[in-house]
Specification:
This protein is α/β, with parallel strands linked by helices. It is built from ten helices and 17 strands. Strands 1-9-6-10-17-11 form a six-stranded mixed beta sheet, sandwiched between helices. It has a five-stranded mixed beta sheet with strand order 14-13-15-12-16, with helices on both faces. Strands 2-3 form a two-stranded antiparallel ribbon.
């Protein structure tokens, strides 16, 4: 069941922003139907609401038994996440109503193995944490990075590597060499994300070395930063690597200048399922993810969305995360 759509973003707007994100299949009266299957760099992406090729898993009774009784009695796993992360992670399908993407598929795997019916919801990024805090939802699955600060309030079970990319216009008049190259540049980022934390850290280090700060521009909607990049209102955008790979390939007018761990130089960051700390659910989720890895359905989701460079070999509970912000 799909509920709580806080912001409806017409697919036509997204298609226009990407320029070639959707090939037009055939004319139909005054309008045109959007092709629901895209091939990007040899990888096929299903953008349809039906998701007929979605990977599913079987219930595992021994793992399902680990779910807290109240959730078992309810019979549903309520998952929240952002609707604006962008393909191939989490986004609206061509009907502009149904949430699809790799993060939704991973949620289905967890729910299936736990023997629960998945309820997929969406909210703005910061509101997702509020919804977990209040108990309105059970888990947050939406390209969430493990950080030391977040670990104080939440539990994590990892399922993907966290790599970020600096996406720039192909005709940019500057070249990225290292963080010093960003001094004085206007760089877009999502507010409240670990990419923002990285960018702020790099800017502060530049200032400490006598360089100009990074001019940081904040965006909540993928289409907004796509348009800002294409119109050169920003010099680059720091965001999730899978989204940058997809967008740069489909737009034709941007490219990836550099990629980084989501934790910067400190360690390899990881993406994880987030739950309220000590609510009794993380053990079952971790066991479900381990089973998906062992059974091969995990790899099927990775392959389906072209995330091979993000794959992990094991799921970990509360591993070292992005360091706390420095003063």
């Amino acid at each position: 069941m799909f509920v709580s759509r806080p912001r409806r973003r017409p697919w036509a707007t997204l298609a226009a922003a990407l320029t070639t994100v959707a090939l037009l299949a055939s004319g139909c009266g005054n309008g045109e139907e959007i092709d629901e299957v895209r091939t990007v760099g040899g990888q096929t992406f299903d953008l349809s609401p039906q998701q007929s090729t979605r990977v599913r898993a079987e219930r595992v009774d021994t793992i399902a038994a680990q779910v807290p009784q109240a959730i078992r009695d309810r019979g549903t796993l309520v998952v929240t996440g952002s609707a604006t992360t962008g393909p191939p992670l989490r986004f609206y399908a061509t009907d502009d109503r149904t949430l699809v993407g790799s993060e939704v598929d991973f949620a289905y795997l967890v729910a299936d193995i736990l023997g629960l019916t998945l309820e997929v919801t969406a909210a703005d990024w910061s509101q997702n944490f509020v919804r977990v805090d209040s108990g309105e939802v059970d888990v947050f699955i939406s390209n969430v990075t493990v950080t030391e600060e977040r670990k104080e309030k939440y539990d994590f079970a990892t399922y993907r590597l966290d790599n970020v990319a600096l996406e720039v216009p192909k005709d940019a008049d500057w070249t990225y060499a290292d963080r010093k190259s960003l001094a004085g540049k206007r760089i877009g980022v999502g507010a409240g994300t670990n990419q923002e934390q990285l960018l702020v850290e790099w800017s502060n280090r530049n200032i400490a070395e006598g360089l100009e700060p990074v001019d940081i521009a904040y965006y909540q909607q993928t289409t907004d930063y796509y348009l800002a990049l294409s119109s050169h209102r920003i010099d680059g955008f720091l965001g999730p690597n899978p989204v940058a790979v997809y967008h740069s390939a489909t737009s034709g007018d941007t490219e990836i200048a550099a990629t980084f761990s989501g934790a910067g130089e400190a360690l390899q960051a990881e993406i994880a399922v987030l739950t309220k700390k000590d609510n009794g659910l993380i053990g079952a989720i971790h066991a479900a993810l381990r089973h998906s890895l062992d059974s091969g359905v995990y790899q099927q989701v990775i392959d389906r969305w072209g995330l091979r460079s993000e794959a992990v070999t094991q799921s970990r509970i509360n591993p070292p995360g992005l360091p706390k912000k420095t003063a």
